[in-house]
UniProtKB/TrEMBL annotation:
Database matches in Pfam families: EndIII_4Fe-2S, HHH, HhH-GPD
Record Gene3D superfamilies: Helix-hairpin-Helix base-excision DNA repair enzymes (C-terminal) (1.10.1670.10), Hypothetical protein, domain 2 (1.10.340.30)
Catalytic activity: 2'-deoxyribonucleotide-(2'-deoxyribose 5'-phosphate)-2'-deoxyribonucleotide-DNA = a 3'-end 2'-deoxyribonucleotide-(2,3-dehydro-2,3-deoxyribose 5'-phosphate)-DNA + a 5'-end 5'-phospho-2'-deoxyribonucleoside-DNA + H(+)
Keyword annotations: 4Fe-4S, DNA damage, DNA repair, DNA-binding, Endonuclease, Glycosidase, Hydrolase, Iron, Iron-sulfur, Lyase, Metal-binding, Nuclease
Cofactor(s) the protein requires to work: [4Fe-4S] cluster
GO molecular-function term, one example from the UniProt record: endonuclease activity
InterPro entries named in the record: DNA_glycosylase, Endonuclease3_FeS-loop_motif, HhH-GPD_domain, HhH_base_excis_C, HhH_motif, Nth
EC numbers on record: 4.2.99.18
Cofactor: how bound: Binds 1 [4Fe-4S] cluster.
Annotated protein name in UniProt: Endonuclease III
Primary role: DNA repair enzyme that has both DNA N-glycosylase activity and AP-lyase activity. The DNA N-glycosylase activity releases various damaged pyrimidines from DNA by cleaving the N-glycosidic bond, leaving an AP (apurinic/apyrimidinic) site. The AP-lyase activity cleaves the phosphodiester bond 3' to the AP site by a beta-elimination, leaving a 3'-terminal unsaturated sugar and a product with a terminal 5'-phosphate.
Family: Belongs to the Nth/MutY family.
Annotated HhH-GPD domain residues: 41-189
Length: 219
DNA sequence: ATCCCGAGGG
DNA sequence: CCCTCTGGAT
């Protein structure tokens, strides 16, 4: 897909899913430490579930130092409702310990350093950088971004790294932070994995997948 | 039943 | 590439 068509799709998605509006329901990323921990906890879960545990978690462990002193076993009950709590309790305690031991309690601001924390892959690191630090080094690619990008024709690949490279080349840097969010919204509401709602899709006329489907059944 | 703004390990 | 980890919402 060419850049003009991609940006047209971006504009329409932005109008359909207002990002500023949606951010109210997203996680509060004002504190980098909390942002890192909450983003780790967010994996394969809803932001509602994560928001439900944030107050108890951070009132008990307000700093990296406090969380570093805890044992995963005592943190686990506090985050039981988010799922994957056994693994995630270990991730966030070890993350806090590494934060204190290697970074003086300050959350680092590079992709490489962030990905050295347990539970932080490229997707999570991208989110922390772009939302907590306003640093755009790339585009966070999750399963929704992956599916929607492939269908629309933003990329031909299924490899997340190549998808990210294609998206980065396709969109201006100002759009990087929001395209992730827009594609996720669209992926959940309309461009679903099964039975996508083509009739509700605001970018159907730009969509390679939709074009192929119609071509396949009409001729 | 199915899915959720994934990452680590085999 | 595959599998596992998990509870909650719908």
């Amino acid at each position: 897909m060419n850049r003009e068509a991609a940006c047209e799709a971006y504009r329409r998605l932005l109008a359909e899913y207002p990002v500023v509006d949606d951010r109210r329901h997203f996680l509060d990323f004002s504190n980098p430490f909390e942002a890192l921990i909450l983003t780790i906890l967010s994996a394969q879960t809803t932001d509602r579930a994560v928001n439900a545990v944030r107050d108890t978690l951070f009132s008990r462990y307000p700093t990296p130092e406090a969380l570093a002193r805890a044992e995963p076993e005592e943190v686990e009950p506090l985050i039981r409702t988010i799922g994957f709590h056994h693994t995630k309790a270990r991730y966030i305690v070890e993350t806090a310990r590494k934060l204190v031991a290697d970074f003086g309690g300050e959350v680092p601001r590079t992709m490489e350093e962030l990905q050295s924390f347990p539970g932080v892959g490229r997707k999570t690191a991208n989110i922390v950088l772009s939302h907590a630090f306003e640093i755009n080094v790339g585009i966070a690619v999750d399963t929704h971004v992956r599916r929607v990008s492939k269908r629309l024709g933003f990329t031909d690949s299924t490899n997340p790294n190549i998808i990210e490279r294609d998206l980065v080349a396709l969109f201006p840097e100002e759009a990087w932070r929001d395209i992730n969010y827009l594609l996720i919204r669209h992926g959940r509401a309309v461009c679903t994995a099964q039975n996508p709602k083509h009739e509700q899709c605001i970018v159907a006329d730009l969509c390679r997948y939709y074009r192929e489907l119609r071509g396949g059944e009409e001729k």
